[in-house]
Write a structure and sequence with these properties.
The complex is a heterodimer. By secondary structure, chain A is α+β, with helices and mostly antiparallel strands. Chain A has helices spanning about 1-25, 65-70, 105-110, 135-150, 160-170, 175-180, and strands at about 50, 75-80, 90-95, 115-120, 135. In chain B, helix 2 packs across helix 3 and helix 4 (about 85-105) runs parallel beside helix 12. The chains are: A alpha+beta, B mainly alpha.
Chain lengths: ~190, ~375
């Protein structure tokens, strides 16, 4: 008798299972069709580091003090700066990040006394090897100047920026056409940084 | 013009040399198209059951996915494992794909639309349907691979266990129908859907009036047993012990690559088509519309068009069953092996014996109702 009731209740539970799955079958899909649709990336997303955009001066906050490079446990930051004539502090001229070594530990961001670096929220980073072994963050900052569109003051020779930006987009940043540079239609740029 | 075309079709389908060639080509085409596109149905179904869209990129709604997969498999090198039995190894894919094609020869798709009207059609379908097991066993054995051999052993014990209730159920149905001829079995189920074997067994209206008690009052249970056994015989989830990818890599197909694997894959779906077609014609009235005898006679009066409408009804039922096979696969996890055998020996075989006993008693009893 036990076998009979067990068989019967087991069969009913199977039917319940079928009922649940068929409900899911007729429900709308919950996935994002990735290359065609993208999700908005959270502000807190830890991408590679970048020089923070300074709204007031247009210059990076970075003074090339090298504290971030010293804080980095993976030795993936190499930077240098100059002291422009007539200015008080140094200004960064080269900031190279070896992203293939970076473990996104955020120690550089925490160590920076000038609040000059932050995590970007780029995630479309799939590329051929060595694409990210040498990221020029100063170049990225310059691109950002043209990308943001307002350029009150550019410490890096404004004439050179417009010429440098396209090559940077091709040479360094394969994904720029997808999420970084605002494309023609503003609706298609949910991940613009 | 249309009348001329219909006349030509009727001529071709009734005169011998053309008829055989047409049926042969159509059945091969039907089986292979199903084998290819049921993979698409499976993947789309799997996607929908998991709330994702399934293949979408190649062709509209991913409809070019099966040819793309086929071309990829064809482009791969065919390799046999060293030390294995090469002849058996390559014979197995052929043996697994050929029997479903033969089975389809005997299956009536519509009124007058069947390749061979065999008096022992049901017997033929089951005898060829069982070769599938041997092919999987040979493939596993000839692979010289421990997973494949474990899978081969499982396939044999699973199929022996499930062949018994399936054949008992079929014997029950043969006792009710009194014939092995598949076309006759369908013709008997004409009229309303209450005349289909799944319901006629309970209460038989076919003799007119209030009717009387049918031959097999447990007919719905018989259908469920048949369905479960069909899942097990075609090695479908939750009984896919032959493949069991989480335990046995790919079971009997572990060593197969390229189109050798592709043929096994296609044969699985061809077998599902045969199994669901059998379930349709044994229990669900085959090509009968189930809309009453008036509609049935109307269809027969339309000649070839009526037959094609019947084929539509047959396919509707068959593809619903095939969809339910996909549905079951993406609902239930794989059973453990002893659970599988327990289900057969402890539940399905006693139940099918009970239905057999009840049916034989009901058929021999004087008609009280």
């Amino acid at each position: 008798m036990n076998l009979v009731t067990e068989t019967f209740s087991g069969f009913l539970s199977l039917l319940t299972g079928l009922q649940i799955t068929i409900k899911q079958f007729f429900s709308p899909t919950i996935t994002t069709h990735y290359p065609h649709q993208t999700l908005t990336i959270a502000k807190k997303f830890r991408g590679h580091i970048e020089l923070k955009w300074n709204e007031e001066t247009g210059k990076p906050n970075c003074t090339a003090c090298n504290i971030c490079a010293k804080a980095c446990p993976s030795d993936c930051i190499v930077l240098d700066g100059i002291k422009p004539a007539g200015e008080k502090g140094k200004t960064v001229t080269t900031y190279h990040l070896n992203y293939t070594l970076c473990s996104l530990c955020s120690l550089c961001v925490e160590a920076c006394p000038f609040d000059a670096i932050q995590h970007s929220n780029r995630y479309n980073l799939a590329s051929v090897p060595n694409q990210w072994a040498d990221m020029d963050l100063v170049q990225r900052y310059k691109d950002q100047v043209t990308r943001v569109g307002k350029n009150p003051y550019d410490p890096y020779a404004p004439a050179a920026v417009s010429a440098a930006a396209p090559t940077a987009a091709v040479g360094l940043d394969l994904t720029s056409s997808r999420s970084d540079v605002p494309p023609a239609s503003p609706a298609a740029a949910p991940t613009a940084q | 013009m249309i009348a001329r075309i219909l006349e030509l079709i009727t001529f071709l389908l009734t005169n011998e040399p053309y008829r055989s060639v047409i049926y042969l080509l159509c059945i091969i085409g039907f089986a292979l198209a199903n084998a290819a596109y049921l993979v698409w149905v499976e993947r789309k179904g799997a996607g929908r059951f998991q709330r994702r869209p399934g293949p979408t990129e190649s062709g509209w709604a991913g409809l070019l996915q099966p040819p793309a997969d086929g071309i990829k498999l064809l482009a791969k090198q065919l390799m046999a494992p060293p030390g294995g039995d090469k002849i058996l190894y390559w014979a197995a894919p052929l043996m697994v794909l050929a029997p479903p094609l033969v089975c389809l020869l005997a299956i009536p798709f519509g009124n007058n639309i069947l390749a061979r009207d065999l008096n022992i059609g049901l017997l033929m379908v089951f005898s060829f349907g069982s070769i599938n097991v041997m092919a999987l066993m040979l493939g596993g054995w000839a692979s010289r691979n421990k997973y494949a051999i474990i899978s081969a052993a499982r396939v044999v014990s699973q199929n022996v266990a499930y062949e018994i209730p399936m054949l008992l159920v079929v014997i029950t149905m043969i006792m009710v129908t009194g014939t092995l001829n598949l076309q006759e079995i369908i013709v008997q189920q004409g009229g309303g859907f209450w005349n289909w074997n799944i319901l006629r067994g309970i209460w038989d209206f076919s003799s007119g009036g209030w009717g009387h008690i049918g031959g097999n009052i447990l007919a719905p249970i018989t259908f469920i047993i048949f369905y479960i056994c069909m899942l097990a015989e075609t090695n479908r989830a939750p009984f896919d012990m032959a493949e069991a990818e989480s335990e046995l890599v790919a079971g009997a197909f572990t060593e197969y690559g390229g189109m050798g694997f592709g043929v096994f894959f296609m044969a699985e779906y061809a077998n599902i088509v045969v199994g669901c077609a059998l379930a349709t014609l044994l229990f669900l009235g085959g090509w009968q519309s189930g809309l009453g005898s008036g509609f049935g006679t109307l269809l027969t009066s339309w000649g070839i068009i009526g037959s094609l409408v019947g084929v539509g009804f047959f396919f509707a039922k068959m593809y619903f069953l095939i969809f339910s096979v996909v549905w079951v696969r993406w609902t239930f996890p794989r059973t453990q092996f002893y659970g599988l055998l327990n289900l057969s020996w402890k539940i399905l075989i006693p139940l099918s014996l009970l239905t057999l006993l009840l049916t034989s008693v009901t058929l021999k009893l004087p008609r009280l109702f």
